[in-house]
Amino acid sequence: MKILLIEDDKLLRELLSKKISKCGYEIECACDGEEGLKMLQQNIPDLLLLDIIMPRKSGFEVMVEMKKYDNLKNVPIIIVSNSGQPVEIDRARQMGVKDWIVKTEFDLDEVIDKIKKIEEEKIVK
Questions:
Q1: pLDDT digits (tens, 9 = 90+) for 1-44
Q2: Cys bridge to 52: 81, 88, 95, 98, which one at CB 3.0-4.6 A?
Q3: How is the beta sheet containing 2-6 ordered, strand by strand?
């Protein structure tokens, strides 16, 4: 399973990348929304882990752009954000986000559990 992580926090990006890689997943990383969109178009992942507040393009802007491309609009997305505001979560769910992780409240195993859940859903389809 190929995963793209778009996250501007270098430490979190490295921690997530190492953990996800150790669990046997192929992972690529982008440090902002604009770079992430380019990577999405070049190599479509099976799953996108996406921050919301980032330079150059926010996570919401990335999701809007993805909907313009038939080959990207069905890529499952898990938001990894500092914000757990209900209004943002509702907006993201309306845009098709599969799950939401609040950075200050999660551990790395939770991320892997959510990835596995998406992977199982893809197998069932």
A1: 999 999 999 999 999 999 999 999 999 999 999 999 999 999 99
A2: 81
A3: 26-30, 2-6, 47-50, 77-81, 99-102
Q: DSSP assignment of 11-58, as one string? A: HHHHHHHHHHHHTT-EEEEESSHHHHHHHHHHS--SEEEE-SS-SSS-
Q: Which fold has domain 2-124?
A: Rossmann fold (3.40.50)
* Residue with tokens 């793209």, as numbered in its chain: 4
Token couple for 82: 């500092």
Q: Where are the domains of the chain?
A: 2-124
pLDDT of residue 102: 85
pTM of the model: 0.92
